[in-house]
Design brief:
The chain has helices spanning 10-29, 46-51, 53-56, 94-97, 99-106, 155-160, 162-168, 170-192, 233-241, 279-298, 321-329, 339-349, 359-370, 424-439, 450-458, 470-478; strands spanning 60-73, 76-83, 86-93, 113-122, 128-139, 196-197, 203-204, 216-219, 224-228, 246-254, 266-275, 302-305, 308-311, 317-320, 379-382, 394-395, 398-402, 404-409, 412-419, 463-469. It folds into 2 domains: 10-151, OB fold (Dihydrolipoamide Acetyltransferase, E2P); 168-316 and 377-486, 2-Layer Sandwich (BirA Bifunctional Protein, domain 2). It is an alpha+beta fold. It has an 8-stranded mixed sheet with strand order 6-10-11-20-19-18-15-14, sandwiched between helices. The chain is 35% helix and 26% strand. It is built from 16 helices and 20 strands. Helix 11 (321-329) crosses helix 13 and helix 14 runs antiparallel to helix 15 (450-458). Keywords: Aminoacyl-tRNA synthetase, ATP-binding, Cytoplasm, Ligase, Magnesium, Metal-binding, Nucleotide-binding, Protein biosynthesis. It is found in: Cytoplasm. Belongs to the class-II aminoacyl-tRNA synthetase family.
Amino acid sequence: MAKSNEPMASEDLNHILKARIDKLSELQAANNDPFFITKYDVDKHSADIKDDFDELDGKSVKIAGRLMSKRVMGKASFCHVQDLTGRIQAYVARDSVGEDEYKAFKKLDIGDIVGVTGTVFKTQTGEISLHATDVVLLSKSLKPLPEKFHGLTDTDTRYRQRYVDLIMNEDVKDTFIKRSKIITEIRKFLDGQGFMEVETPMLVSNAGGAAARPFNTHFNALNEDVKLRISLELYLKRLIVGGLERVYEIGRVFRNEGVDTRHNPEFTLMELYQAYTDYHGMMDLTENMFRYLAEQVCGTTTIPYAEAMIDLGKPFERITMVEAIKRYSGIDFDQIETTEEAKALAKEKGIEFEERHSRGDIINLFFEEFVEEKLIQPTFVMDHPIEVSPLTKKKPSDPRYVERFELFIYGREMANAYSELNDPIDQRERFQAQEEAFAAGDEEANHTDEDFLNALEIGMPPTGGIGYGIDRLVMLLTNSPAIRDVLLFPTLKSSR
């Protein structure tokens, strides 16, 4: 016997395909082509019937969906129809639907799309079902679904044929329904806070706002090279300059980087900016929003993720990057004054760095090495080195650091926020430092954006801003191990 994960033998598949095409040809010859049907008036879904059984018992309803099982027993048969909300059983008897229609029903294949009219009842075993009075073939399935006992388990096939994955794996469909609800609830929360949703360009001449390599393309109409955006930041801050005090955008961004369990080259980012607040305001907003989303989507603020239980109900810890490194490695960078001392310490601890790196870069490398994976419960890591934060306001008390935080949950960055830099002179100097880093080999460095500098020279109020990776948030709230599990169509190498 073939193993469950082995492909169906080609001769068996060819036989099935031929049989299904022959059935379609027979229908077409009899003027019953299912592809000529343009609509079907569905009035109930399977979950509606089960939830409202007491009200619907004995009443006629119309459902439509995919035939997932069929048990023919002489003059009567049972089948299961799967729609958006689940599956429901239908009892199909020759005496109820008519002899010709019953013959047609017996020729249906698993995977066919059908419409069923029937009376709601409960079987002797207690299963809520429909006693069919009419069964209509709405679309013919010409290829078989995966073998029913083992379903669709090969991950590559699941991602490439998400449409089959959604049919065969109910938990997958539930994840994407929940993803939609998460985004709906984010909008509801922010709208309630007075934020305005906006849209900004995806094709840009200068892809800034993050440390990432962009995708490049060519705009034929203008004969100009352009880039796909890597961030939403610089255009949204232009809107703050324009007087729109609270703005956010949820949209795709594109980064020319590798693919792994947490990264996909195109992903959904949300950024929001609020005038007259700072990074502490962004912490409060973030904590409140994560708690709200957990309550609305999961029904609780304590949620499972992998082997951990994440508590979003209690106050999130707030710790500086230097304090976090000291806690988890015993190294106190407050005692490390120079780049030379930092590099010597990195060599001692086996931390790889580049010659161009300064003290601040090495602090960040130590954080990534010793701290990140240990931050399981929600933690705001604050006050990053200025070298790794080119768009952020300096801390007045120590200009070597900036007013920035990252939120970590289960060792993963979930959000990145600043007290936004609104000093155009300082911003120009930071851009110049980024240009020098690019010239020294940093392909992810920002480039000078003259129009953005012009906007800052017009004047931007004190502002707090933050970016959230929506896909990672969905991973958290659906307990999904990989980003591909929450993207309907993840990026894959061509199968050709």
